[in-house]
Every structure is written in structure tokens, then in C-alpha cells.
Amino acid sequence: MTGWTVVLASGAGCYALKLAGYALPQRLLARPGLRRVIGLLPVALLSALIVVQSVADGSRYDINLPRLAGLAVAGLALWRRAPFLVVVVSAAATAALLRAG
Amino acid sequence: MPVAAGAEPVEDGERRRTVRDSLGVGVAVGVYGVAFGAASVAAGFTPAQTSVSSLLTFTGGSQFAIAGVVAGGGSALAALGSGYLLGARNTLYGLRLAAVLPTRGWRRWLAALLTIDESTAMALSQRRPALARVAFWWTGSCIYLLWNLSTLLGAVGASALGDPKRFGLDAAIPAAFLALLIPQIKVRRAEQFSESKKLPISDIRRSWLQLSAAIPIALLAAVVALVLIPLTPPGVPVLAAGSALVLLAFGPAPT
After folding, report:
1. What is the ipTM of this complex?
2. Of the four, A55, A83, B88, B107, which is 20 to 30 A from B206 by CA?
């Protein structure tokens, strides 16, 4: 699949998911199991994405110290309640500086 | 001067406050688009593809996930699967908003496009339906405009800079996911707590058990992904972590 296919398929699918909420019957909201799973899905997926993006290169482990240091600094920034962009930029800057040094 | 209780028209001052709050959230969130633009170009998408993704997909978590899985060597299907699973929460938001935004025709199509974490949160935190509509439209359109402008800026900027690793972009992507994860955990906890307050005491203990589910789920997903990295094709560990949760959640509820 080309980049364009992925982009267009993601646009169509994600928009359809949004629109479905307006079209589906309201009584679905009463199902606690459904609400629980949809509510927790981002938690599970984002957590898995953090792991994969930190320590994997394709299908093998890739421990890269500047990258992990960047992630640690991001964690620190989040703990100090820094805004999103500060978190992301501080992670990138940390990794970049360690590589330059 | 006191306003009669239950008066339908929204006071000008109240309306202005809601618009101001919405724009505040909108500006703060809209500029994240720079980070997505840069991450998407680093994953190999062109600036044009990156911009169209923000125009059509317009849900940050899914967009970052797709860029992340593609950057990690995952297949297009694995990337889309992760993006769709993350986007499924917007269905829940739409269900909730449909009651507050009685829109038809083109307004409903537009409302669906603008249905994301922040516009939903701003709308549902208002006390009156009229203010909820003001909050939804102002927050949603402000983010849409800025998210797309900043995506373009980030994409063009990153493609001019060259090797993304030299600028630490490989560290910026997991950092972005971490920054998206923390508020999700907090929201889960707060939501479940507010639900638990309506319950009799005996049920509060039970719901506290569910309330703390967000952190164990995050850890479990991390372990599943970590173990599967060398065993499966790229992209599959993330999908598997999501699917494991679905199996868990539709299993027997904790008692």
C-alpha cells in the first residue's frame, strides 16, 4: 500500500467512527462493558506504542541510550506538568544533544 | 441583577467566558500539530500526505499511532488497525454529544469531523446545553484550523531539516505518546470516581477496584508489547495489546 492509500483509508475510517457515534442508538451508552473497553483502549494502545517506539527497531530490540534519556526527560517534564510541546521538544533536544556530544 | 432560574437564553457574559475558555484550549492543543507534522514526515510520509491526514483524519492519537507504526516498519494494515482502535473512542464521544448537539444535515457531518477529545471534554463540562454547543463549535473549529496550519509547518520544517534522528525525533515520538497517555489515565480515574459517587457505599468499593484499572491495563499492555516485539511482525505488538484488553473487558466483570 502506498502512503496515499494509508492516508485516505485512515481519513475515511476515522471519520466513519466519529459519524457512527451520531447515528447509533443512544441505548448503547447504557452498556457498561462497551464503555469500559472503549474508554480503556487508548490507555492500552498508547502504553504499547510507548514501549515499541522506545525499545524496538522493526522486530528486534534496540536499546538506544540517547532515546531512552530523552523519554526519561519527557517523563520528568510531564511530572512537572509541562505543556505538551515542552515535553516533546525536551525529549528531542536531550537525545540530539547526547548524540552530538 | 439575578436572572430567573431556568432562563433559556444564555447571558452574554457567560457566553463570552465559554468562548474565551474554548479558544484557550484550542490554541494550546492546536499547536501540537507541529509535532505530528514532523513525526509523520520522519515516518516517510510526504508533507502533502501529512497535511491531508490532518485535514481528513483529524484525531491526534490515531494520526500519531499510524505514523509511529509505519516508522517502526509496521505494515499498512497494522498501522491502520492501531489508528482505528484508537479512534474508536470518538464513536463514544459522538454518542454522548448527539444528545447535546441536536444537529441535522451538513451541521451533523461537520460536528462529526470536529468530534475529538478536547471538543467533547469542553462541551460536556458545561452546565447548560446552549453553552455546551458554544464550547463544542468554538473549541473544535479553533483546533481544526490551528492543527492543520501547524501540521503543515511541522511537516515542511522537518523535511527541510533532513535526518530526523540527528534532531532526536525518534525520542520525540514515544514522548508524545507518553504525553497523550497521562491525561487518558487521569480522565479514566476522574470519570469512574464521579460515577462512583452516585453509588451506595457498598458499591463504591467495587467501583474503586475498577477505577484503578487504567494503570494495570497500561502495564499489562506494555508487557504484552515488549514480549511480542521479537516474535511478531512490526505493528502487531500494539494491535495485540489492544485486542488483549478487549478480551479482558468483555470477560467477567470484577466483583
Report:
1. 0.90
2. B88
